[in-house]
Amino acid sequence: MSVKVRFGTRDDIDALVEVNCSDVETWYHYSSEGRGNPASYDELSSWERVMHGGPWMDRSALIEYWKRMERLNIISLVAELGGKVVGHLDVIFSEEFPLGYFLYLDVLMVHKAYRRRGVARTLIKEAEKLAKSRKAKFMLVQPEEYEGPSGLTYRSCGFKKFLEVYVFETAVDVSVMPQNVCLTTIPQTQEVPLKTHTMICGWYNIGIKMWDHGVNPYIELSRVFSCPQLALCTLTGKEMYFFYIRRDYFNRLRGSIALWAPISFNEENLEQVFSAAKVVASWLGIRHLTTRTIEKYRDLLEEVGFVLKSKAEPYLAKKL
Ligand SMILES: CC(C)(COP(=O)(O)OP(=O)(O)OC[C@H]1O[C@@H](n2cnc3c(N)ncnc32)[C@H](O)[C@@H]1OP(=O)(O)O)[C@@H](O)C(=O)NCCC(=O)NCCS
Prior knowledge:
Layout: E1 3-7, H1 13-21, E2 27-31, E3 34-39, H2 46-50, H3 59-72, E4 75-81, E5 84-96, E6 100-110, H4 119-133, E7 138-141, H5 149-156, E8 160-171, E9 182-185, E10 197-201, H6 207-215, H7 219-224, E11 229-236, E12 239-247, E13 254-262, H8 267-283, E14 288-294, H9 295-303, E15 307-319
Parallel strand pairs: 6-7, 13-14
Antiparallel strand pairs: 1-4, 2-3, 4-5, 5-6, 7-15, 8-14, 8-15, 9-11, 10-13, 11-12, 12-13
This protein binds coenzyme A.
């Protein structure tokens, strides 16, 4: 039986939830204290199901997420085997400094009962055709594990290590707002600033997705966990910077930050903006900020007081 790939639609939502749920062996309750007792799928609320792997785990959450996919032009490639939906690969085109124009492979999942039959390989080949047809320069992905099934799948399809990712941390030890920084909310007219600005830190995902998380947060999860988050704009002279801080769901003293600076930023201004971001983190009760960055900004983060903690899974790329 050969694998057929097509564009997914809202009509595929139930089948996509089934594919993703196949990966979960035991379901658990969740609260602001963290993971609770095992439970059946039916006993869990929508957001408790989401905690097991994102909005693909629950029908109503995926209906909601589909709006976000449409806003961001995320394309869902759906794989069928004998007429049954057995996998999907969600992809998004983006143009960002310093990467250029590329196709990002965002989410890949194959039903547990249909693995090692070439479903993922066929989905990735279709993504490649799409990327070539729209003249993307390369495809990019951050596999869950370089040495695990996801990394091995992409590497078997010709993907190579492209960007190392570094995990940094800093103590929130500043409480006075720097004088030459003016904090404001992000103007509603603000265009996604990914060609004029660079993501210095926040490499949990590519810029377009991190920006969207910042300006359109998942309200339901923030509400359930009483977990504050703020996306702000800072002005220093003529330069505009943006940052997004979120407190962790389960550890109230920790949070994470993503920060965008103009492409040719002034290092002194950047230092001031990081100080301002730390002050904002302290307003949210955060004592330690974590972030991720790439080689290009590693030294810079150390200069503004972050300490290298570990490496995360690298991004892989395939040139086209
Ligand atoms: C990773 C995943 C998508 C692979 O899907 P799949 O349809 O089983 O993959 P394919 O059959 O197309 O495999 C293609 C090649 O990848 C490699 N590969 C895939 N799974 C592997 C595994 N578990 N161990 C070793 N190599 C593996 C093999 O080289 C394989 O070719 P082969 O079967 O001829 O040896 C699937 O295991 C999955 O959904 N995992 C859980 C979610 C996940 O990790 N998603 C990726 C997030 S980035």
